[in-house]
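Aim 2, interim progress. The first record below pairs a target sequence with its C-alpha cells.
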Amino acid sequence: MLILVTYDVNTQDAAGRRRLRQVAKKCVAHGQRVQNSVFECVIDNAQFLKLKQELKDIVDEETDSLRFYILGNRYHNRVEHYGAKPSYDAEGLLFL
C-alpha cells in the first residue's frame, strides 16, 4: 500500500535538528522523498505500523508535527504530479 508521510520538526535548537535528521533517515529507509519533508512509502501494514511507531518515538509532540496519509493499494489513480522533478515508479527499482 502507498503511505504518504509528512513531517514538520522544530529545528530552533540542536535537539530539534537531531530529531529532523532521525526522522528523515527513517523515512529514507522506507520510501522515496518527493519533497523536502514528504515521503511516499510503498509498504505493507506491518511495516507501516513499525515505521509509525518509530517516528512517533522520535518526534516531540509538543513542537513537531507528523502526518500519515494512507492511500492504499489502488493508489495509482489517486496521485497526480505537475511541474518540476518528474514523477517516479513507486514500485520500480530504486538505485542507491
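The second target in this work package is listed in the same format:
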Amino acid sequence: MTRERLRAYRAADVAMVFQDPRAHVNPARSVGDFLVEGLTTARGVAAADAVAKVTRILREVGIGDAERRMRQRPHELSGGLLQRVMIAAALAAEPRLLLADEPTTALDVTTQEEVMAIIAESRAARGLALLFITHDLELAAAVCDRVVVMYAGTTVEELPAGRLRDAAHPYTRALLASRPSLEDAGAPLRSIAGRPLSGFEVPEGCAFADRCPRAEARCRADRPAPRPAGDGTAACHFPYARTPEEGSRHA
C-alpha cells in the first residue's frame, strides 16, 4: 500500500487495544472526550450522535452508569474499567480487524477473564477478525484459531491452536515446558538456557541455535526456512516429530 492507502486503512478498518490503557489516554481530559474525539474529528460524526454511540458501547462492554463514567478522568477508573474504555474506543471505530496487544497483562486474574470475555463476545457479535498478541500460549490457544510463534522478530512456527501441544519447533516446546503444571505442582520451573536475541543480533544461521538442545553445525550456518510440519509449518532443520503415542494422547 502507499502511505495514503495505509493511513486510510488504519483509520477506517483497524483498531487497537493496547497493553497499558493508562499510557494511551490523556490524563487531563475526560473519558468522554477521549471516546468522542476520534468519531467527531476523523469520521465527521455529529457530537450528539458520537456521545450516544460511545455511551451505548460502554454499556455493552460492562460499564454501568456510563453517563457518569464519561465525565470522569482516567485516574478515577480502575485498571479493569479503563481497559473496557479502551475496548469501547476500538469498537466505536467499527473496524474489520481488532489488534489486541497483551490487553490483560496489567490486570488481576479475575479482571483478565472478564476483559477477554468482552473481547471474544464483541468479536463474535460484530464479525471482526482478531490478531491477539500475547506471551501466554495457553491463552492464545483458548482465544485464537491459529497460533504463530515468533523469535527474534521472525516467525518460527505456525499451527492450529488446538494442536499447540504437538508443536514441532524446539522454541515452542521449550515455552510450553516452562509453564507451571497443575498436575505436578511440586515440580521445579524449567527455563530456557541463554538469553533472547534482538532481531539485529541474529547470526547467519538459526536465531535459536545457541539455546536449542537439538542444534547441530548446520543450524549455525544455514538459516532454516518455514516448511510443513504436522498440521502447520516450522522454521527448523530438525523439528520434533509427532509420535504415535502423542497422536493417541491428543486425539
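The longest helix spans residues 109-126. This observation will shape the mutagenesis plan for the next reporting period.
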